[in-house]
Amino acid sequence: MGGSGDPADRIIVALDGMDPDQALAFAAQVEGLRWVKVGLELFVQAGPEVVARLREQGLRVFLDLKFHDIPATMAGACRRAAALGAELITVHACAGSEALKAAQAAAMEGAQRAGQPSPTLLAVTVLTSWQEQRLQRELAIAQGIGERVPALAQLSANAGIGGCVCSPLEAAALRAQHPVPFALVTPGIRPKGAAVGDQARVMGPAEAMAAGASQLVIGRPITRADDPSAAFAACCAELRTGS
Fold first, then answer.
1. pLDDT digits (tens, 9 = 90+) for 3-42
2. pLDDT score, position 215
3. How many Å apart are CA 88 and CA 10, to the nearest integer?
4. φ and ψ of 13, to 5 deg
5. Average of per-residue pLDDT values in the chain
6. What is the pLDDT of residue 1?
7. What are phi and psi of 5, to 5 degrees?
8. Is the dihedral of CA 43, 44, 48, 50 positive or negative?
9. Which of 9, 121, 185, 187 is a good FRET partner for 174, with 20 to 30 A between their CA atoms?
């Protein structure tokens, strides 16, 4: 995982809303880019080849498909994802401990057999688009987000999962419970002057890092900028200066 102090290792640019050719061209044009996120839409259109091609461009890949299935199926999916060279792979914590353990073991095996880097599985606790009252009402869950997130993070850590995807607003509480090297990867990051969009729980890059995030996922503020390289550099600068 990108554990260095270089801000470029801390920022994962989400290639959302792009077709495969656009994604590959975009990733090649951003100066200093290290990490990209491939999500469901791009993967469904492009398939595994887009991961391989991004890797060929020297990029590190966060494969954000949020696997949630029976243990054998989650294990098989994580084995394949790790063999592709994805170094961050999302799974849903609410799949349960048996599925999480199977996924973790299979991912390590898949990477080792393929000669790829050891991946880190990231458990998704509560999606950042959820708001508390709606979550409780629609899913008939008594817990609030403030209770449910740490409970699912603890379940994941106990199962050997290496980190979580979390809202930046949850990072400080989770970091207090799960010290480094447990990864906390945070979407919902909006640099200075950026629109909030459809995320309900957001924070600036420097604030999120100070709260305990290990890496930040940033999409539209960079991908839809007039000058994506400059926008990426500005995000890096925010991390360097801490503001």
1. 457 999 999 999 999 999 999 999 999 999 999 999 999 9
2. 98
3. 13
4. -90, 125
5. 93
6. 44
7. -80, -5
8. negative
9. 9
Helix axes 48-56, 71-84, angle to 10 degrees: 30
Cα 34 off chain centre by: 14
pLDDT at residue 129 in the model:
81
User: Are 11 and 236 in contact, with CB atoms under 8 Å apart?
Assistant: yes
Catalytic residues: 66
Quick one: 166 exposed, middle or buried, by C-beta within 10 A (0-12, 13-18, 19+)? Answer: buried
pLDDT at 243 over 80: no
Distant-in-sequence, close-in-space partners of 74: CB < 8 Å, separation ≥ 6: 67, 68, 91, 95, 99, 100, 102, 103, 106
Angle at which helix 145-158 crosses helix 132-139, to 10 degrees, equals 70
- Nearest 5°: the CA angle 194, 198, 204 is 35
User: How far apart (Å, rounded) are the C-alpha atoms in residues 237 and 243?
Assistant: 9
> Has residue 195 got a pLDDT over 70?
no
Residues 6+ apart with CB under 8 A from 178: 153, 157, 164, 184
Amino acid at position 59, single letter: L
Distance CA 232, CA 175 (A): 26
List CB contacts of 217: < 8 A, sequence separation 6 or more. 12, 13, 14, 37, 62, 185, 186, 187, 189
CA distance 160 to 158: 5
10 DSSP β-pair partners? none
CB 240 within 8 A of CB 7: yes
Q: Would the pLDDT of 188 be above 90?
A: no
